[in-house]
Amino acid sequence: MANEDTIVELTGHITQSLGDEMYLFKDSTGEIQIEIDNNHWLGLDVTPEDTVIIRGEVDSEWNTPQIDVDSIQKKA
Fold first, then answer.
1. pTM of the entire structure?
2. What is the pLDDT of residues 36-70, one digit of tens each?
3. Which domain of life is it from (predicted)?
4. Is 14 exposed, middle or buried (0-12, 13-18, 19+ CB in 10 A)?
5. Domain residue spans in the chain?
6. Which of 42, 41, 43, 73 is nearest to 55 (CA)?
7. How do 66-74 and 30-36 pair as beta strands?
């Protein structure tokens, strides 16, 4: 996994809501928890079948790496 605060762009699927703005994201390399603040959704409706592109930074302050998402979009 990349170092703390490394900017990343990932393409995959949000497979599950974990509550409190936390989600499970899956791509071809595996799964990771991501945090998407409510204001970053911008009215986007996403299902587990939708392919999305997320951009954000690595946050590993709790020993378990996660992605703090800055933007999300559906892949066309």
1. 0.90
2. 999 999 999 999 999 999 999 999 877 788 999 99
3. Bacteria
4. buried
5. 7-74
6. 73
7. parallel
